[in-house]
Write a structure and sequence with these properties.
Helix content: under 10%
Length: 400
């Protein structure tokens, strides 16, 4: 689940900030009416699994991000008298202590009590009958801005015409190959001193598999169409200059069928948010969801409790499938090299660079002592150790 709602910013009279951003002189704004509101992001689905809920606090424009709400009592009750308890996992994530799936015909209600004793609840919500994804496809296109890249497209069809509202999330995993990886590396020759030696490289990774999750609100609706059909809806566009498609790429797309209330909430939220950083921009007002304070009707609570049918599909493709014979996209770093001296009058130079992890071995420089250079080339760690970007272990779902 995306934690977009957990990044919400609530600021009074925020439209003023939009006017001053074009000024030449910097403007330091302070907002005296800021309130730290509880932010609830909760979507339970028809999948049998440990369900997730995110609890954070809203934050001001110049803060780094939301503060997790810790040690809250969180539960969901259904109309059959079942109670599902959630436990704090850290970073705002609460997981149900048991696996369960939302079922049709049941009413579900979320309850939250924070560690300071404040009590909150949601409206009662039912599972929306849904439909599955028919297929996910990848297609090379030129977008509206004239940029070449890969489009990830979704098709689905509900012959009953009852689904209508769709929200999407994705999780992409891709193979990265460190361009200046070497099977040998530099280490200190002794516990003390500046000399370095080359040994076998048993820990710096050449091939890795980073994973990114969507952080945007992706919506579509068939309400105004002749039939409930999603046809070639683009959930992701990847520029041909993006290194993540350089070798092998995989994306898992999840489709949530939403109620009218949930779709309207997220649609309004999308209007308030930028595509680059959801909830990190100032907002023109307060967006009321379906969660409320039990103690104070005037207290603002942000977020939405949703019960949704979900389906998912995964696809893979290689760069050569769509760009045969073409040059790979540029790596995430230009990977320049330097040849620092072993030591100078100030002390060791190369050793602290290697021990700090800032640099890694990138070959022999061929420099002579008179060149005022060291004998070893060094590059940034990301160029010779891709574990900076993601784990070297092959994911269980990965196929060739």
């Amino acid at each position: 689940m995306s934690s977009a709602i957990g990044k919400f910013v609530i600021v009074g009279q925020c439209f003023i900030l939009l006017l001053v951003t074009s000024c030449i002189e910097p403007f330091n704004a302070t907002f005296e009416d800021f309130e730290s509101a509880l932010v609830i992001e909760a979507t339970i689905t028809n999948e049998t699994k440990q369900q997730e809920i995110f609890l954070t606090r809203s934050y001001e424009f110049d803060d780094e991000g939301p503060t997790p709400e810790v040690n809250a009592n969180v539960s969901i009750n259904d109309s059959e008298g079942n109670t599902y308890v959630f436990e704090d996992q850290g970073n705002g994530l609460y997981l149900s202590t048991e696996t369960f799936a939302a079922e049709s015909g049941q009413d579900y209600q979320l309850s939250v009590t924070t560690r300071d004793g404040r009590s909150y609840r949601s409206d009662q919500v039912q599972l929306k009958t849904g439909t599955g994804i028919d297929q996910i496809t990848a297609e090379r296109i030129t977008d509206d801005d004239g940029q070449d890249g890969m489009a990830i497209l979704v098709d689905s069809f509900d012959p009953s015409g009852t689904s209508k509202n769709y929200r999407y999330e994705y999780e992409e995993t891709y193979r990265v190959i460190a361009p200046t990886w070497w099977p040998i590396k530099l280490v200190p020759e002794a516990e003390f001193g500046c000399n370095m030696i080359l040994v076998a490289n048993n820990d710096l990774a050449r091939v890795c598999y980073p994973t990114n999750r969507s952080n945007q609100i992706i919506l579509t609706s068939t309400e105004d169409l002749a039939e409930d059909r999603v046809d070639n809806f683009m959930v992701r566009f990847i520029s041909s200059e993006n290194y993540i498609i350089s070798h092998r790429y995989s994306i898992l797309v999840r489709q949530y069928v939403q109620s009218d209330e949930a779709f309207n909430f997220y649609s309004t939220l999308l209007e308030f948010s930028s595509s680059e950083s959801l909830f990190s921009q100032t907002q023109p007002g307060f967006l009321q969801g379906n969660v409320f304070s039990n103690d104070n009707s005037e207290e603002r609570v942000l977020g939405f409790f949703e019960v949704s049918t979900v389906s998912e599909q995964r696809i893979f493709f290689n760069y050569d499938d769509f760009y045969p014979g073409e040059e790979l996209p540029p790596y995430v770093d230009p990977c320049g090299t330097s040849a620092p001296v072993i030591a100078n009058m100030g002390g060791c130079v190369l050793r602290p660079l290697i021990e700090s992890g800032a640099g890694v071995y990138a070959g022999d420089s061929g420099a002579q002592p008179s060149d005022n250079q060291g004998p070893y080339l060094v590059t940034r760690r990301v160029c010779g150790d891709c574990s900076v970007l993601g784990p070297p272990e092959i994911p269980e779902f990965w196929t060739e």
